[in-house]
Amino acid sequence: MEALAAAVREDPNAYGLRATMVRAGGSLIDAVEGLGSGGGPVNLVVGSGWSGTPGEWFLYQFVSVVAGEGTTIADALARRSATACAERILADPATRGAIERQTSDWNFADSLFCEVYQLFFADYVAAFVRAVIAEKVKLVVPALVLVDPSGQIADWVADQVAAVLPMPCAEKEKQRDDPRSITEIARDMLQDTVSAALGLPGGIT
Fold first, then answer.
1. 7 contacts 79 by C-beta, under 8 angstroms
2. pLDDT digit string (tens) for 84-140?
3. Is it the case that residue 5 has pLDDT exceeding 80?
4. Cα 18 from Cα 127, distance rounded (Å)
5. Contact of 42 with 86, CB cutoff 8 Å
6. Which pLDDT value is given to residue 143?
7. Mean pLDDT along residues 66-74
8. What span, in angstroms and rounded, lies between the C-alpha atoms of 28 and 116?
9. Superkingdom of this entry's organism (predicted)?
């Protein structure tokens, strides 16, 4: 984690990580906020000509909205993490049922949002470590391939990131009189969340 933070401090624009995480994180919040309202960026109504299931349509829509169509490493990581989030959403029976009914008359649970929010950033950083940093380390220390053949270092990183992320549900619990919704709190915390995920002091731009 310290190596990642040092690299980002040295070059805040390295790989486009920070900018992509902020953009995709904001899109994630927008996507979830719109689910159930009928007016969000993720269209639950299956498009004409779509041959898959409503769940597959949702996954495609969700990933497109959150991660976009960029071609950089950072964009590819965002698509991977957005896919993990969509799959987690679909794993919730009540939410999947609403998605498959293609209805806007339902509420997205705050607890599920916070779980997905945490998953996105933890998975993103772990995927970057797995795809970029770990490969560089293995070139310098080939024995690491034998020590960590299944990429457990990246899994450990994901756990570390998840442990330090500021969470909107925890913030809401601390300030129960706060009139903001969970998604509004998450949006206000986004910059600090990205900083924490990258091991940076809050507020660095």
1. no
2. 999 999 999 989 998 998 887 778 899 999 999 999 999 998 888 777 655 554 444
3. no
4. 14
5. no
6. 46
7. 92
8. 9
9. Bacteria
Tell me the backbone φ, ψ of residue 2, rounded to 5 degrees.
Answer: -65, -35
Euclidean distance between CA atoms 32 and 51, whole angstroms: 24
Are the beta carbons of 62 and 103 closer than 8 angstroms? no
pLDDT digits (tens, 9 = 90+) for 76-86: 999 999 999 99
d(CA 74, CA 16): 6
Residues 146, 151, 154, 155: is their CA dihedral positive or negative?
negative
pLDDT of residue 164: 81
Token pair 């979830």: residue: 32
CB 124 within 8 A of CB 111: no
Residues 6+ away with beta carbon under 8 Å from 16: 72, 73, 74, 75
Residue 43 parent element (H or E): none
Q: Can you tell me the distance from the alpha carbon of 189 to that of 180, in angstroms, rounded to the nearest whole number?
A: 12
Which pTM was predicted?
A: 0.83
Question: 28: buried, middle or exposed (CB in 10 Å: 19+, 13-18, 0-12)?
Answer: buried
Report helix, strand or coil for 110.
helix
One-letter amino acid of 19: A
Those residues whose C-beta lies under 8 Å from the C-beta of residue 39, and which sit 6 or more positions away, are: none
